[in-house]
Amino acid sequence: MDVVVKKVPVQFGRVCAFGDFNGDRNTDILVQRGTNLTVLLQDNELLNVLEEGVFKNSTTFRVGDAAVECSLGDFNGDTKLDILVSMKKRADYYHSVWISTVLRDSFVEHKLPVLSSQALAIDVDGNGWHDVLGFYPNGSMYCITFSRDGSPAIDCNYLFPGFIRVDPYPGVPHLFADFTGDHLAEIVFMDSTVTGSGKFLTPRMWGRFKNGWRETPTVISQMPGEHQFVGAPMAADFDADGLIELLVPICRKADCKQVTEFANWQYTRGWSTNAFDLQNFNILSDEDSLMLFRVGDFSLDGYPDLVATLVEKQSLGQIKESLFSQLPISFFFLLRVH
């Protein structure tokens, strides 16, 4: 994998999500600054002039005093982005959805149950609205739909008649995308397999059928090699062939500060690997998360970019000490060369 590095002007905070919050087709950033989440809108006019990302503050709201993870979706069908917020306290994950309103781009909170891992924002019932899917500590499923005002509505567990349980791989969110090219999105649960050598990531794909969702165990084969240290997988059409790939960062050690290669799965060709080296940089991620990279089109060329928070190796300790303060973060876009 060839890499080109583009630096974006310094921002303050930690990245929680990327998405188009104002409908201008530019990728905006949702960052956590202390106890608040802030939407940073990308300035389209300055982008065209300067040829680099420029962001300005938009909405800010308080979410709590711990680090949070975010997933974006439209839960109430108003075509505006809402936010699923997950906050880990000890071994539990506290969830809430923040629904966008027409009043000055503000958000209203609706609390959800405590789960064992970060929940997923997906359209389970096929009505075009996002639902929330997650797991309780015993491995059973939590699935909920939402009403027009954004409040929780009815359970959707019945749409998974063959589901038994999942042991979620720690620090890795599940994925929802059309991996098979049939114009229907699949769910990939990030399950765990335990052997004598340790715990390994085991992606399990579920597809939508007439009677609900069903596992398709032969679609994703076992990842080649016993890679005990991995980062959170990502989904995007990285090679522009029309099919979405599953990209898994392979780490040198358990802390995943260094990624040595990517395992790349595609529906028609299976697994392949790409070497990767950031040389003098370490990847900065949250203590309880293996989300090393995020995907967004920041160069506006129609191709997905991998975005990581990088720090020079000699300065890593200093930055970690001030993680929840007004921390300057440099964003580097890692672009596939076409």
From TrEMBL:
Keyword Signal on entry: yes
Protein's UniProt keywords contain Signal: yes
Pfam families registered for this protein in UniProt: FG-GAP_3
Keyword terms, alphabetized: Signal
One cellular-component annotation, GO: plasma membrane
Origin: domain of life: Eukaryota
Entry protein name: FG-GAP repeat protein
